[in-house]
Amino acid sequence: MATDYKSTLNLPQTDFPMKADLVTREPQMLARWEAMKLYETLQDARRDAPLFVLHDGPPYANGNVHIGTALNKILKDVVVKAASMAGHRAPYVPGWDCHGLPIELKVQKELEKSREQLTSAQMRDRCRKYAEHFVDLQRKQFKRLGVFGDWERPYLTMSPDYEAAIVATFFDMWHQGYIYRDTKPVYWCVTCRTALAAATAEAEYADHKSTSVYVKFPVKSKPGNFVIIWTTTPWTLPANLAIAVHPEFDYVWARVGNETWLVAEALLPVVAQKAGVANYEVISKHKGRELEANNGNGVVARHPFIERDSPVVLATYVTLDTGTGCVHTAPGHGLEDHDTGRRYGLPTLSPVDDSGVLTADAGIFANQHVFKANRPIVEHLKQIGALVAEEEIAHSYPHCWRCKNPIIFRATEQWFINVDHKNLRDKALHEIEKVQWVPAWGFNRIQGMIEERPDWCISRQRDWGVPIPVIKCEACGFVFEEKQYTDQLVALVAREGVDAWFKRSANDLLAGVQCPRCKRPTEFHKAADILDVWFESGVSHRAVLRLRPELKYPADLYLEGSDQHRGWFQSALWTALATEGHAPFKAVVTHGFLMDLETKKKVSKSYGKPQDSDVYVNRFGADVLRLWTISEDYRNDVPLSEEIIERVAGTYRKIRNTFRFLLGNLNDFDPAKDAVPPAKLEELDRWALSRLQGLIKTCHEAYASYEFHRVYHSVNQFCTADLSSFYLDILKDRLYTLGKFSHERRSSQTVMHTMAAALAKLLAPAVPFTADEVWQCLRPGGGREALDSVHLALLPNHDDHLFDGELEARWERLQTLRQVVAVELEKARAKGTIGKSLEASVTLGGGDAETKAMLKYFEPQLPALLIVSQVAIELDRGESFSVKVAPALGQKCARCWRWEPSVGQHTGHPAICSRCVSVVETLEKLN
RNA sequence: GGGCGUGUAGCUCAGUUGGUUAGAGCAGCCGCUUGAUAAGCGGCAGGUCACUGGUUCGAGCCCAGUCACGCCCA
Asked: Which pLDDT score is estimated for A197?
């Protein structure tokens, strides 16, 4: 029995496992939360608390949850959980974007395989099924990430109430005059036969080889004079209606052989070289503005192969980078060209049909496909002697984001939102000043975009979406715009969804209505286009914030990737400004994009890095993935690599072990009965408590300012530097070897208990599974702490009374001393004088007055604080501080492992020190 | 090509209004421990602060340019 002193120690003991095994344990926690209806319970518990609404931007209901989407969702969840724990009622209604081309194309492909022929209503039905499938799949994956929300009642852009809100918003803006129909060049994919939104990610730029040509346009009634233009799209030449020059640039008439050419002075040598002309002579020089056709002496050219004038016009977008300084202008095939054409009253000629075939207006090139027409056109130019030069150039050219084919500009009838109507743009610019942008440069970014953006093209020529709900009378052309009709349509959509629009005839849609103008029983006609899906998601402020009683308008926060400055933030802003008069968000937080650390490029399939969130969840667990998310400063791009996540997993283990140690040593501690009041705490414990206040403060600020990486780093720092290597290391001796009920031990346990509870709460928004697992083991006793989940708790508050700067400063000096001593101990270890530090006796001497005072102050505690067996202090050793390390005196106590002269002096317990003897004797008396 | 950003040790982050030898944790290397043990402790070694040039007595911080990367647009 004399040797079994180990059983007399208070060693840590806990059911909290060291190995997290998150992949199997997290689903169990999810089941527990589900069973206790945690989200609902939390909402109910905060029902009278101030409301905080983060409004979810809907991900697209297609495919698995991408790791980038997981990043976004986790950030949102951290915000929501932190808000809730800061005392808010923070409901989270997740949503999905369900309509749109990607789903329609996927379904179409499936149909092609099975060779099915479906009506558009049947087609829409398939699309709906498809979207529903992925909503279910993604919902599971999002829940698995530990994201709290109203998952059973998410918002879907394809649900009738949402669709009704879309239609209602359209009508609202239509009535106010924001919406117009016009012929305008838009990006057009000839393969998908649809317009693409320029303001969204529907056009991708990629390198493309084009035939560029220099073409002579004869000057009207001046034989031998030519204006030289340059273009990379010869197929648009049939649509040429003008030639643009810059008003401020210098242009010259140059004699080339027996001809006279007009080009920009700066580009003449280049043009001559391309044309293979060695000799030329400048005849006269003019400012661009002097050449303008409607100016008395202006220049009017003739189209080289169509009987038509091509006047010289002015435009400031003309550059001298390439070409001739004389820009081929086809208002039907370019946005800038269209603007110019409009200024000069030119028509919008666009002789190209839906599938990219040139029409009769293209003259002899009719019936040719645009991408195949280049060659014949160039050949024709050559034949008629209009071709100056030809060359292949590689340049960046827009491609369809979906089918990857090159796209064209084509003028079509489209619906637009006039962003300048009723000073909407100015209002937008004013409104964004009132919004809090995080990071702050988000303001500059969106401001620039709002200033520059053209009118918003909101129509698409597709099936899977919400129709542009406009009906007119076939007979007399009357358009049913009045509120009585549109209200009827909105009510219908609210009842049946927009499927009604596709399934019913126009007359049926306006059941019981007669054309008020012609008053004849006649056929009505419904518009064929559908709305841009950005319009749909944009109006979520109306469909969700306004419709859901638990939410509010405007939202406190929108949080998305920085691409949404042009996407959702704007589509929400424009529609909200037009219908509500102000922005739908008070603050906007943006995050960067995932980057592949190895390649320094964005994460993409081609580099073989896994894309699916589930891959990471099933390998590391959601909490590690979440911890990684908050470890990064997401305001910049976020690097992703094996190493990075492994590092974070290491931090996770450190934090977890810290919890395990705390819990293990709290095994016999009941805070209700055993807690030591603050005033009676040991100084070391007061220090730890004071440090905790600093951590609490930092975390509060970090959560409030959305700087989650500061939570990660400060908690990590605290666990490693303050706790693990200092506080807890020193504590081991007193926790293990002193009497169970000793004041010192209870004092430390009191602080450790506070510490564990505080850390669990501080970390709950970040690692919800682990924090709650700790919470269950901690069983914080009594009162409001007796909550079933840490997520029902509030964040700990920084307590000024527990913070003691003076004390911290004093202990910082001690820590410096500790480092100096550690270096000397290491030297002794290297020499073989000692092994562990308890085998050492340390002599400290000399130093400045401050050091001496510090030594004197800490003297009685120094062996414990330095974790050595003896410390001798020799203050009279002069100004220079010295540390000497020698083998400890006495013998090693078999129980507490300190070296003590008292070991061997007690007859009953010859193997242990006097301090341990008294503890053991007390135990013996109890037994 | 344009707009908005980013670039500090192998990794993630700190670096106060420009002011001494640029900090931390992790990883690395070398030890100790075996009573937090697929743990714990200590020590050591890592940086031309992307590059170039300015302003200044002094620049990681200010200015200009270059390069790389990202988002958005052409």
From this structure: 56
Protein CA A704 to sugar C1' B60 (Å): 28
Q: Who's near A333: CB < 8 A, 6+ residues apart?
A: A185, A233, A236, A239, A350, A408, A409, A410, A411
C1'-nearest nucleotide to the CA of A836 = B32
CA gap A465, A163 in Å, rounded = 9
Q: Which nucleotides of B are covered by protein (CB under 7 A)?
A: 1, 3-7, 10-14, 24-27, 31-44, 68-74
Closest C-alpha among A3, A2, A7, A9 to residue A733: A9
Between CA A799 and C1' B22 the distance (Å) reads 34
Distance, CA of A389 to CA of A214 (rounded, Å): 5
Distant-in-sequence, close-in-space partners of A534: CB < 8 Å, separation ≥ 6? A197, A199, A200, A567, A568, A571
| DSSP H helices in A286-364 | 288-291, 335-343
Measure A403 CA to B20 C1' (Å). 62
Number of neighbouring beta carbons within 10 Å of residue A434: 9
Cα Rg, chain A, nearest whole Å: 38
From the CA of A634 to the C1' of B66: give the distance in Å: 27
Sign of CA dihedral A289, A291, A293, A295: positive
Q: Which residues contact A448 (CB under 8 A, 6 or more apart)?
A: none
CB neighbourhood size of A907 (10 A): 6
Measure CA to C1' and name the residue nearest B13: A713
Q: State the sign of the Cα–Cα–Cα–Cα dihedral A487, A492, A494, A500.
A: negative
Which nucleotide shows the minimum CA-to-C1' distance to residue A604?
B70
Whether the CB-CB separation of A886 and A855 falls below 8 Å is answered with no
- Shortest CA–C1' contact from A187: which nucleotide? B74
Instruction: From A414, A118, A359, select the one nearest A238 (Cα to Cα).
Output: A359
Q: Calculate the CA A561 to chain-centre distance.
A: 3
Distance CA A136, CA A258 (A): 74
Angstrom distance (rounded) from CA A289 to CA A245: 8
pLDDT digits (tens, 9 = 90+) for A396-448: 677 776 677 778 888 888 899 999 999 999 999 999 999 999 999 999 999 99
Find the helix packing angle between A22-35 and A768-778, rounded to 10°. 70
SS3 A329: strand
- The nucleotide minimizing the C1' distance to residue A19's CA is B38
Q: What residues contact residue A382 under an 8 Å CB cut-off, 6+ apart?
A: none
CA distances (Å), origin A180, targets A344, A416, A451, A534: 21, 5, 20, 17
pLDDT band at A207 (very low <50, low <70, confident <90, very high): low
pTM, two decimal places:
0.88
Name residues whose C-beta falls within 8 Å of residue A345's C-beta, 6 or more positions apart in sequence.
Answer: none
Tell the residue number behind the tokens 């022929």, with chain if given: A117
Please answer whether residues A156 and A94 qualify as being in contact, where contact means their C-beta atoms are separated by less than 8 angstroms: no
Share above pLDDT 70 across residues of chain A, in percent, rounded to a whole number: 96
Nucleotide nearest to A5 (CA to C1'): B35
A335-351 per-position pLDDT tens digit: 778 877 877 778 888 88
Cα-to-chain-centroid distance, residue A237:
43
- The ipTM value here is 0.97
